[in-house]
Model the fold of this input.
Amino acid sequence: MEGFPQPEGKELIFKCGRAAARTAGARAAPGPRRAAQLTPGRAFMKALDENAEQYRKDATALGAAAAGAGGVEGLAGLEALSAMKAKAAAGALVYSRFVAIGLFRLLELAGAMEPAALAKLVEASGAHAAWSVGRALTPRAGAPAAKVTADLALYKSLLSKLSAAKELLADFAEREKRKAAEREAEKAKAAAEAASSAPSTST
Done:
């Protein structure tokens, strides 16, 4: 698509968001779905020509820097945020939900969870001036804090549903385990009663 900037897989905020989403999703997902998440993850890395280990290291390093930032002002001074803002100013930054999740994760790690923090970080990162990825690429559509908030609400809703499904399956498994134990106990009791009521063969 000539003339349109493309999503940048090597963008650190994007990496942080994707790593956070994958980790949170794996924790919230029911057991069988955890393994299922690995296949699309590998495909994603291959499509971006990324090294999975380096991807994780980059996301971890940014997370460590955010944890020591001390607040929004400290986060705004991070090299990753400055680079992101410069790309946005040049019209080369593409906004996606992973960017929103990445920004939110940085705020979590920095302990800056006051209501105004997200809007400040969106502006500091330049995301509000980024190209927006949705049903179509829209030049200068931008990603205002309201858009980021809506994307984060959707993300949290999905995690909540996965967590609820995990709890439901855990309850089901526990009930089945209890029923199986009860059935075994009943069989053992029936066998013992049959043995005790059987006529003796001794003379």
Residues 12-190 form one domain. Residues 22 and 38 are 9 Å apart (CA to CA).
